[in-house]
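Why show two proteins at once? Because comparison is the fastest way to build intuition. When a single record is shown, students tend to memorize it. When two are placed side by side, the eye starts asking what differs. So, the first record is below.
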Amino acid sequence: MDPVKALMHRHRELCARAVDPLEIAAGLEAHGVTDRTAARFRHRDVFALAEEMYARVPRDAEERGAPVATPARDAPESATGWALFALLPGAACGLAAVGIELSEGRARYAVGLGGALAVAFALRVALRYGPLRSAHHVGPAPRAWACLLVAYALFGDELMRAALSGGPDGLWGPSTATALGLSLAVAPAVYCVRLFAVGARRRLSLSRGLTEFTASVRPLLLCVVALYLCALGALLVGTAAVYGVPASAAAGALGALLLLARLLSSYGFTRAPLLMLGAAGATEVLSLASVFAGRLPGCDWLAAPVEGAVRAAGAGVVPLVACGAAAAVLLLHCLRVLSRASAHGAGAP
């Protein structure tokens, strides 16, 4: 029996719906077919095997000559709307920051609340209609952890300092510089992810083997992440200079974590982002809780590790370590799963 024909029978649905050989190659890789497996079918690699399988699929002349329809999921990508939507969070946060500076008393709290709602709505639009939109439904848990991490970035350092000094004794405002820097960084995040998606698809079309594709896409991913980190760092330094405060390295770690988590979600990998966002958020909450728990009689030892770290490196060390470690894990995971051809098949961002 023809082994290629038998393979096509096992993957008949994949062959029937494929619009090009690359989609068959990506599907075969997702099912565990490697270049070594392709050699048993007398082909040099999975790409060559996929080309023969695609050529063997029966199609009439009209279907062969008809242009391939673009999936509906890719329609927003061809428009320029997502490029403008990416600017909305930064613009909304900038207007809110100006409004807070110009208002006083209760009006300031009202402007701050309205600005927060406007930024949240703008962020939802930017993530829903652009390269960072999730390939699958994102449940409430990742969103809740992300909101907790952002809230800690805005309020957590001051609360930690107050807790270690015996407080808190009153209300305090958020870190406007951090909020503005992270909001402005949404635009470079969207553009960098788009750059990665386009570059990966181009390398997929040019590569002649899975090993070659993996070797070419991993440096691309690292360059894109580095480009985003440079843009994020410049924005955080710039906003910090405007408000006359030190730039927050912890905010940079948070930005990297959120980018990598959303990048994985946009390709359908949602488990690792949930775990790492939860781990970072739980670390920050437990660190803060341990300081308050250390006030109980005989429980000084609970606060000793956090207190020692904060006194040595500042209050920002807690989110820096939590978010930085989680971001490093997600980066390694990205290098593993996003270097697969199956991640960039039809329907990918």
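Second record. Ask yourself what differs from the first in the token line.
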Amino acid sequence: MTMPLPRPKRKKKGEGGGSGTLRADREKAGLTGGDIHALPPEDGELLELAPETISPNPMNMRLDLRDMDAMIADVGERGIHTPGIVMHTKVFMECYPQWASAVKYPDRTFILGPGHRRHAAALATGRIMPAILRDDLARDRRVEEELVSENNSRSGLSPIEQAMAIDLLRQRVHEDEDRALSFDEVVERAGYTAGTVSKYLALLKLPREVQQAIHIGDLSMRASYSLSLLKDTDGKKESPEAHALQLRAWQLMRDEKLSVETAKNRVTLEGHQQFHAGKSPAAPVAVPEPREESSAQAREDQAPSGATVRGETAAPTAVAVIETAVGAAPAAAPAPAVDPELLRKAAAEQRNLACRLLLAEERFAKGAESNARLVTVVLNPHEWKQAAAKAHGWLMELKKGPSSKKRPTDYFAAVAASEDSGLMHRAAFAIGLAADEVRAAQPGRAWDARDVAHVQFLATSRASYQLSEWEQQQVELLSRGKQ
């Protein structure tokens, strides 16, 4: 139902409305008493408008107006208490010609600044829309800043909507110069830190499907920013190849309930499958139990500090396992043309990458997992030298610890003297992990339960390792031997 346009309410001087020159303006115009409303409204005046006279602003970055039922009910009962901001549509279109064609109702008198949810509620209930006239925002080209400022003070906006508002500000033209705002100017006017602005803008470079997941709340801000760091082989984050990696990681998070770091590791491993000769889909096989750990140790398993955020759930708890049926046909052997030692070497290269990915994590292992590897290397001191050399290479490549120490013995001595408990923990775990990997990679030896425990740990860790067909065969051979 269309309502007649109410006459604007002018506040008296001293009550915060108008410019304070109303009496002088009225006298100049020769107006008296009831003719006050013949004057056009002034900037800063509070108006009461029919919502049908106001057009939504095309610069509004809300993708949808959420949770409107409660607001419509409240406005229907009590009206709108907090005024929105409006500009004359003609003034807005003159000052923002690049947006003129996107104005939904160019024939309406006013256009909104902030206040789109209130406007929608007023339309739904037939209530009057109180609004403050601010043509100066359009003339000074500060509408973007007002929208971003309003967004900062309101809840309910998705990270994507906030990112779009900041991006709108980034694209605006400087009011005094014919140039876009610099990054520092965007940071200052957006009211965020530089790091926060960078993270928000990074979300807009993700694939559309990932952005939609962020917008509806299926993917957290922290996890989505981590996804945006995935790069292609040329180090680019916005190429079709990079977008494919980011989308694949999100699909793994969604479908397999992986944490973001685990999903990224899986994608990295998948991208290096050219080193993993002989890998093909293989039926899962029974995996023998890994190292025995007491229930007391299991209860002490705790990941290193670091809060879990939405979108970062725990990694799967086991390699895909089924019991081998008695009398079942054996798994197909590798093609005769492929040398088994080549398959072993290719699998070792892929595991080596998985170990490096795992050591790069802040939460790389639980307490019992780390202790089991330390116990093994302590009880087998002849393994220490080779294990320390491999662990030293991993940690130097990851830039963990003293980079000036080129010899493993000097490096680990410096780590021990550093009093950095986190680094010492990581270095000790790296030696234990390397001892297992050096052993598993040795040519010409049959695998045993320790080797199986090693690949099972990599598969269930944040490395999210996937066993090759050759490794599946070694596990199956060992499983049969124990039956």
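One difference worth noting in the second protein: Confidence is low (pLDDT under 50) at residues 1-20, 33-37, 274-329.
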